[in-house]
Specification:
It is built from 7 helices and no strands. With 270 residues, the chain is an all-alpha fold. Helix 1 runs antiparallel to helix 4 and helix 3 packs antiparallel against helix 6.
Length: 270
Amino acid sequence: MLLLLICMYALYYLSINHELIIVKAARFPCLINLPHSIIVLDLGEIMYELSILRWIHIVAMVYWLGGEWGVFQTAYNIVNRKLSMEERRRHLETAYRIDILARTGIILLLPLGLHMGHIWGVQPYGGTTLVVMWIAVAIWLSLCWAAFFFRETDKGIRLTKMDESVRFVLIPVMMICAIGTFLGYGPFATGEGQMWYPTKIFIFAWLLVIGLKLRFIMREWTVIFRQLAQKEDEVLEARLEQQIRMSRYLAYLYWIGILTVAFLGATKPF
């Protein structure tokens, strides 16, 4: 949590000072068309800012990909009827503790991408917009962690549904922005070497859809285990096994999508 708070403070500081960046056509040709109010400074300033953002972006991506794999592997023991209910609940608790890191990574990746996108000149919203964005992300992240702390309770389920509702807004907005850019209406840049960005946003939106379905499944685990703690139920056990089979195929597609997004961000191929 201390590392997370340090990262959030660093990002806020970068946001409020974001107008003090450079435009260097030789290294960042996509920045040529930025507003004239941007102040031109030494190349080291923007490279330092990008280095911090990239570092946090890499950490968030690692936690996302690794966390999802950890939850996937733990799920086998959660649905294993050969284990005692107490042992299965311990595995469920482990899955929750791994999953919160993956959720944190997912939430941070979008604002990190938008922040870096402004520096690269592929998305036009900076300055105050970035400050508001990071404040909103801090609130969303707090909601996510609150749902984690109150897990396996009615309050935790309500908070989880609120967390999921944020995605109901973000997913269509991201898809509309990406498709609008593909059609030439913006808001993202469409110049040569810039189409990787709306493509990445579009794929990320679909990954949020898959992740949302996996969240629904995990939330139902909480409800089912509360019922199984009271008495054994073959119908509920069968439901758990059905869910792990469904989530397995979704997880494979999820990982392919995550690696694709990472590839686009690293190589910027088109």
